[in-house]
Amino acid sequence: MRCFISIDLPEEVKKELAAVQSQIPKENAKILNVNPEILHLTLRFLGEIDDFKANKTKEILNSLKVKKFKAKISKMGIFPSENFIRVVWIGLEPAEKFKELHELIDNELEKINIQKDERFESHVTLCRVKFIKDKKGFMEKLKKIKVKEIEFNVDKISFKKSVLMPEGPVYEDISEIKLI
């Protein structure tokens, strides 16, 4: 099964991010918004794993002792570069706290032979980009979008299964881990 570990976002944050998505310039471009209902921060994408590794992952996550913390949405960005835009994202702060959480999970998963993922940026993918005619103009407009920095509590981690469908991915919770 195709799985990932994430931080889910509260409804208030999803509404703000949907408002941001609506301001992203789409003229002379092919840009697909991520469904606001499934917006999240991916702490660790696992890809295809078998039932054994899924159960072990669940055990590992349940054994973690991580304290709750406050976070907020912050600045917008793109991946991988301004010359080759494929993703528009919004950052989450405190970035170092999300990085610590990612590294903690990565180190534990390595014990069950799931390779480390060195590339981590605390972000929520807003849009996937297929084509932009005027990248410079796009970036200028993107930088003018105002984002309301909403603060929220991070009090759980979700372990999810992802099923790819023609209309987009469908996520199913495998388990939720409450933070202390």
Architecture overview:
The protein has 180 residues and is α+β, with helices and mostly antiparallel strands. The protein has one domain: Cyclic Phosphodiesterase, Chain: A (Alpha-Beta Complex). Helix content is 29%, strand content 44%. It has four helices and nine strands. It has helices at residues 11-23, 51-63, 95-110, 135-144; strands at 2-8, 29-33, 40-48, 69-81, 84-93, 123-132, 151-154, 156-165, 168-178. The chain has a five-stranded antiparallel β-sheet, with helices on both faces. Strands 3-1-8-9 form a four-stranded antiparallel β-sheet, covered by helices on one side. The longest helix is centred in the middle third of the chain and has 16 residues, at 95-110. The protein is globular. The model has no long low-confidence stretch (mean pLDDT 95).
Keywords:
single chain, 180 residues, alpha+beta, Cyclic Phosphodiesterase, Chain: A, 5-stranded antiparallel β-sheet, 4-stranded antiparallel β-sheet, 4 helices, 9 strands, globular
What helical percentage do the residues reach?
Answer: 25-40%
Total number of β-strand segments? 9
Strand order of the largest sheet: 2-6-5-4-7
- CATH class membership: Alpha Beta
- Structural class by SSE content: alpha+beta
What count of helical segments does DSSP give? Answer: 4
CATH topology: Cyclic Phosphodiesterase, Chain: A
Strand content: 35-45%
Kindly report how far apart the N and C termini lie: 29 Å
CATH architecture: Alpha-Beta Complex
